[in-house]
Amino acid sequence: MPSHSHLASRPRFMPPLPFHVALLLFAFALAPALAARAQAAHAHVRNVAGRSLLIYSIDVEGGQSTLIVSPSGASLLVDAGWPDNNGRDAQRIQAAMRDAHIARIDHVLVTHYHDDHVGGVPDLVRRVPIGAFLDHGDNREDSAATRANYAAYLKAIQGHPRRILHPGDTISIPGLDAVVLTADGQHVARIPGVTPRPNAYCAAEPRWPADPSENARSMGILLTFGRFRFLDLGDLTGAKEIAMVCPANPLPPVDLFLVSHHGMNLSNSRALVDAIHPRVAIMNNGARKGGSPEAWERVHQSPGLQDLWQLHTAEGSGAAHNSPSALIANPSGAPDSGYWIKVEARANGSFSVTNQRTGETRRYPRP
Question: What is the structure's pLDDT at 48?
Fold first, then answer.
């Protein structure tokens, strides 16, 4: 008969643990890794929350593409530039995204259906994850080219959420306030928190011709980050500008103005530009598109304007109607490298503007 000590040394059969006990032990083992991941995620959120508002005026050669990234990391792209060119404009958008440390775009807002604004959407959709598309609704322009642009846009955004916006609507961008001012030929009469005031600049304003094109249907937005305000009216033309700001102006003074319509003289009425008192303006002109002497002069002479930045030297204008080279991202005579102009804004109203070509930054303290 075996001894008790011999029996004690034998391996014994261990019954399997109950499922709930095994699950509990697994959870305990995994807890440190989950805690570390959560801590890293919270640290990332804190880092993102501490950033400035970023605005990139991307060089799409006389079209528009403006990337806005809030301190929360949420993003809005206003327009996508031209079609074709081997995806040039989509690649330039992606370069700005990398600089802003984002991998997707939450909202793409299409101001109107001209090919220098909406034409780049199909290329962008093929390259970049996008949340939703925002626009003013159906194309209103009776031209074959614009109808084709609109059809290509609708095809490209299939499967994505689409929201049609109207004046007074807001766009949800965590950390920012964004209100639609103009859309589909209509405009706001007032903005929450802003009291419309008589516009003294209207009396001297000449009569502007009616515009049947999509330009007059442009969606325009006012973006607010604390005390900082940014105005972008797309390609809105003179008659629609005057209808919005005369005889009473519902818009507040702004810190940054994206010069309308690439600096063409069909837009940028004095009654609009002078009434908003921009501290700084950016003109998204091309070398041979936009930047007309008349529009440049109206913006440059606006009361209180400190600087007028340009994406290109306006080749059709002389030195008297171009900003100094330090304020031009792609000057005449230099290789066209598609350099952007980058704005970093703080909630206290201070901001800086950087010329990507030179790396130089100008700072604009809080007013």
Answer: 43
Distance CA 155, CA 345 (A): 36
In the chain, the number of structural domains is 1
The number of beta carbons lying within 10 Å of the beta carbon of residue 160 is 12
> Within a domain: residue 73?
yes
Range of the domain at 156: 50-364
- pLDDT of amino acid 18: 56
Q: Supply the pLDDT for residue 32.
A: 47
- Tell me whether residue 181 is in a domain: yes
- Exposed (0-12), middle (13-18) or buried (19+): which is 268, by Cβ within 10 Å? buried
Residues in the chain with pLDDT values less than 70: 1-50
Please answer whether residues 27 and 314 qualify as being in contact, where contact means their C-beta atoms are separated by less than 8 angstroms: no
The answer to whether position 89 is within a domain reads yes
CATH number for 90: 3.60.15.10
| φ, ψ of residue 337 in degrees (nearest 5) | -105, 5
Can you give the pLDDT at residue 26?
Answer: 46
| pLDDT for 41 | 39
Q: Is residue 34 part of a domain?
A: no
Q: Is 195 exposed, middle or buried (0-12, 13-18, 19+ CB in 10 A)?
A: exposed
CA–CA dist 233, 270 (Å, integer): 15
